[in-house]
Amino acid sequence: MPAQIRIYVSGLYCGGNPQPGVGIVRSLRAAFPSSKIVGVEYSNRVSGIHWEGLDDVWLQRPWDELDLDIYAERVRELVGGGALWISGSDLEAMWLASIFPEGHPNLLAPPMQALKRITKPEVLGAKELPVKIPTFISTDHSDWDLHAFCRQHNWRVWLKGPYYDAARTPSWDVFEAARNALSKVWATQRLFLQAHVSGYEESVMLSAYKGELLGAVSMRKRDITPEGKTWAGDVTEVPDEFLVPLRRMVKALNWTGGGELEMVRDAAGELWLLEMNPRFPAWVHGATLAGHNLPALLVQAATGAIPKPSIAHGEEFTRVVLEVPVRKDFPLPPLPEPFAGAVGHSMKHPSGLPALAERLQESNPHMLEVIGDGDGTEQVAKIPETMMQDLGSYDFAQVQTPEFLFMESTAASLFKRASERAHRLSTNEVQVITGYSIKTNPDARLIKLALDNGFLAECISLAEAQKALEVGFRPDQVILNGPGKWWPEGLMPTEQMHAVFCDSVADLDRCVAALASGEMKSKHVGIRIRTPNIRSRFGIPLDSPATFAKLVEAVKRLPTDTAFGVHFHMASANVGVAQWWHLFESILKWCRAIEKLTERDIEMLDMGGGWFPDDVHDGDEDKFAKAVETARAVLPNVRQIASEPGKAMAQPSMALAMRVLEIQEHEDDYVEAVVDGSIAELPMYFFYPHRMLRQCGETGEWQPLKRGKTHLMGRLCMEHDIVAANVQLPEGTRAGDLLIFCDAGGYDRSMSYVFGRG
Amino acid sequence: MYLAGAEKRQDLIEREAERRSCSAKWQHFPFSTLSHHGEACCDIAREWLLAMDFAQLNGGDLLSGPRWMRQKYKWGPTAWPIHWCDAVERDTLDCGAHAAIAHEAFRARGVTSYPAQFVQQYSPDATEQWQKKWSEDDVSCHWIDDGVIYHEGVALLTGEDEVKLWDASAGWWINPRQQPHGYGSLLAVRIHAEGQFGVGDGFRWGEHRIKPGAWHEF
């Protein structure tokens, strides 16, 4: 009579994001009813230890206190003594691989080399599979580059840890907070950002022994938990076009154990691989119910024992919540006391998996590095040559910090480039002209540069229009828009303006009346359209057919001797570059509908708003040229396109100089440096990263600030006055040293306020 | 007498065949289309709907289902005929109106779509509820037949001859791997298209082949 099969199964967590242990146990029990199955866990809070299908429970202390050497010895004894081990936890599988780098016949988990080849995000081992990998960037890159990645992907990005955990980061402040949290939990700065892929999630589960694929099934999620985890699914055979390369992959990796490829199928039917897990998935028993008992195949391969045949109950499975009796030997532990003043009980990771991650990291820092485009060395954002020249022109001994510095050659070069580009994009039929948004920085030097480079002045109030006129703009070079553009009274230019865009139907009616009475003169009068799918408070809404009908009727009332235009502004830095271009296309469709329904030709388009400087100045000019072509094709009567890049002109044109007041060193290399700058001068600190430099007090050399453990605390007695978090001050930095925050010439400058100055 | 008896028997056989055919009741039923007043009111409504659909794509794939429509227009009784100007202003539309506007939206995006008619299985309890609701609104219940219902959607061409079936009232793609029985399952489909698809075998929907213009029962 063959000896009883003994199988140790771990990963018994059964919360909202369950581990597969209980599913593996259920499948094994169905296939090998007389086997001895022992559950392995690291916390008596894990409810799976009470599952009735377990013959015994081998409970260890949590990973943060477990003596790994002793434990490794016990595991060696077990598998050496003939017991099988199926791991239901990624991190435990990694730890086991570190004990058995070449594997062990009874350890039904992948060897170390295989794990290294499936490290996310690149998953090199899956290269032959018919899948794509969503675009990603290592957080080794500078914050400047990471912000650019987020913009390029419309802020639909995920910050992911090296093992698991992912946080959606729809804005810069959320990204910074998530990076801090994930870095702390997983004890590494090496995270990555990955573009979101919209679609339906599906997985392939596999079972393999010593490089031989024993079985594989495909599962589509048919119902999900709020966390996006499987709640129900359907199970089918893996198609040959996937199965054949999968078999090769398993062979190449010499895979042993379960595995799961988590994927998304997009609307076009393409598969995107999110990650590969070195274990069976939590839905493993759902596949068994559909007649595919993959854990049984694994045990069969390892032992030669013949499992009971799997009975297919159908292709679909779902989950229910079950109450089970608690094992007498493992009574429930008390619920921990909530932290004083906090809400709820912090109960995540009862078995201390993050501690295991930290310990693995310490024992072998290179064990599972995030493979990809980073090499672990943080890259620093490049400072443009013109900025360095501009800094060189200042005598900082004479600068009373904090002080904004006008970056003269930087600004001059940006305005010139924008002007030249507008000229290149213009055709015989359509003039492209750039608008300078006065509100982004009303500094006369910038307004003058705009004037000298042939810009139009985009104003949101009569006060701004007046400022533009004072600097030298003519009224027919002024565009007036926004909901408060008639403020303050009495400053209306008496001569004809270039364009006025109305923010509401009532505003449009007022304009029509003002034109009729001669109170206002404008070559173009138009409307600002409110983007219907992205929240905005500006422009005429289009969100119902009734409001659209009112708009159509109002436009029809415009005098026929006034040219008609449409204005569309949305901050591309906030919504993302690709999203902005979609909005542009969408607005063209609305424009075409308005033209058709009103029988008014659209002669001027004013588009732009809130571009990040790099996206405009270093952006793809072909894209802009194509946009002009498209606009012309959709709206054949357009004669002028005013492109208003918003802060892109002003932001790089000024920097903020500040000095270190005091450096406070704390435990664990954490440093707080107090500076004389503050959020009163850098109100945009939370929205985007600034490139920072420190001037060496001895050599005068400019040194870029890298990422580190220093927080730069503003001078204000305000809790949130932190002007930079997680930077590293160069060695030798001391009180009195000069720091420069580049990229402070846009809303930092124009929205800065006087505070704490007496 | 003999002949009359045979005719009666033949009639019974045909009725029995019809009874077994879940789509028989809707054999000559046309798919729904919205009417147009031929005036600005319907022009504005139609232009608004199509521009809004493109806006709601948010840069997503043109083949994405227009789920926003189901969020805006609940599913419920609709009196027919219905005009564009009326349809887009309503809070509630039935499956015919949902499908008609989804079909127009797909076409405006430049993707190929066809009107699709469905027969679905539900339960007598469900259909009793719907019967009551539609009757209270004084709207025809022609679409209900015991535990089976007539429904409409859109077939979207995604390859040379491959289609996906969009249920505009549910806001989801119908599962081609579904069992052809059970609550909510698709029992039959008819795709209104002209031409040869799949070298005469019809559209490919999952493992199925569906000939255009005819009811296909699963």
UniProtKB/TrEMBL annotation, chain A:
BP-aspect Gene Ontology terms: lysine biosynthetic process via diaminopimelate
GO molecular function, one term: metal ion binding
Domain ATP-grasp, chain residue ranges per copy: 248-303
Modified-residue entries (N6-(pyridoxal phosphate)lysine), positions: K439
Needed cofactors: pyridoxal 5'-phosphate
InterPro entries: Ala_racemase/Decarboxylase_C, ATP-grasp, De-COase2_C, De-COase2_N, Orn/DAP/Arg_de-COase, PLP-binding_barrel
Keyword hit for Nucleotide-binding: yes
Keywords carried by this UniProt record: ATP-binding, Nucleotide-binding, Pyridoxal phosphate
UniProt keyword Ribosomal protein, yes or no: no
Protein name in UniProt: ATP-grasp domain-containing protein
Record organism: uncultured Sphingosinicella sp
